[in-house]
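Model it.
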Amino acid sequence: MSFTTCIEQNVKLKASYIYRGLSYNLLEKYQKAVDDYTSAINIDPNYSLAYYNRALTYKAMGNNDEAINDYTRTINIDPTIGIAHQNRGLIYFDQRRYDDAIADYNVVIKIDPNYAFAYNNRGVAHSKN
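Modeled.
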């Protein structure tokens, strides 16, 4: 059974939209992925995974402002999702918003003190600041 068939049988099954969106991402059909993640959000406006995946897709499309917005929504729903802080920090870094990047990396380190990548990124951001 395909994800499209699952959606046709139950349009309120948010996980089917997520899985089909992930498939579209792999095929680089980014707008279709965004549309599916948005459908999942319309079903459940507090579905952090849908915002997170849509942020990843926006980033792949080069739409960093929308990616930041969705990472922020993810974090507002569940502030313990460290990878959302990490990914938002990476965009801030690319935008030369080093203080914002450092703040996000600090949160990642607080969530997971063993996440070496966050220490590295924070150090690089400090060196640019």
